[in-house]
Amino acid sequence: MEKIIKINTVDFYNKLRGVETLNPLVSVLDLSKANSLPEETFNFGLYAIYLKELKCGELRYGRSTYDYQEGTLVCVAPGQIMQVHARPETVAPKGWALVFHPDLIKGTLLGKHIQEYNFFSYDSNEALHLSEKEKHIVMDCFLKIQDELEQNIDKHSKTLIASNIELFLNYCTRFYDRQFITRDNANKGILERFESILNNYFSSDKPQKIGLPSVAWCAEEMNLSANYFGDLIKRETGTSPQEYIQSKVINIAKEMIFDIDKSISEIAYDLGFKYPQHFTRLFKQKVGVSPNIYRTQN
């Protein structure tokens, strides 16, 4: 069985990297002055953000292997697994890392909204590629946190550090929005592919065997993480993938309702609903009337 090393404290992580712990809940590391992580599999109990400025080995995270390029930002959340593989030609890492314990942000505004930063759940091949200007902004945030860590800890320390981390994450949200736009070629046809996957799904026997298609299943079919897929669809359509799937289901249902040889319950089962009343509830919510009334009116 593969050995997995758990990283549950900032101090343990710092010891792996050979750096001093200035605060038990947060650390900023200059990777050119830190030890490389050993070739192991790690289970993170911390939030970790890496800014890599040179190719320095291979990171396997989620389903993909990723070769770091200059100015690449990768985010890891507690509970995620990361594998590190060095290469023979590996050079000393250059870049920065920010790690912080979930306890740091408890009771803060950031703690209430941390789940809204979807990029912590993106796969590594969906990492953020930074421009020179964006790298300077990221570095400024890191250095402000580092400067605060070098001060004596007082009643303001936690608030100031958490606020700077939140500012940094808000910049990351902006940079990802920019990346969605500038990488239109890479994302081109995302909506068409999504539509095709749904069409193929509902023209097969999958609804009866599996049920309604989930967002996670659709993302898997498109080789994307669920959150990255969700953000792309939201940007393209203004609605979430779940809402898009529901609209697709209702459009197909409207056609099926005209087949008077089938009961509403049969239509519900054919579409993948486990219980007909769930179909009726969704239909009424989206259309304004029940399936039976819609059939009668039309």
TrEMBL record:
Signal peptide span per the entry? none
Q: Which InterPro entries match?
A: Homeodomain-like_sf, HTH_AraC, HTH_AraC-typ_CS, Tscrpt_reg_AraC-type_HTH
By its UniProt entry, which PROSITE patterns does this protein fall under? HTH_ARAC_FAMILY_1 (PS00041), HTH_ARAC_FAMILY_2 (PS01124)
Highest rank taxon of the organism: Bacteria
Q: Where is the HTH araC/xylS-type domain?
A: 192-297
Give the source species. Chryseobacterium ginsengisoli
Record bears the keyword Transcription regulation: yes
Source taxonomy lineage? Bacteria, Pseudomonadati, Bacteroidota, Flavobacteriia, Flavobacteriales
UniProtKB keywords = DNA-binding, Transcription, Transcription regulation
One protein family per Pfam? HTH_18
Question: Any idea what this protein is called?
Answer: Helix-turn-helix domain-containing protein
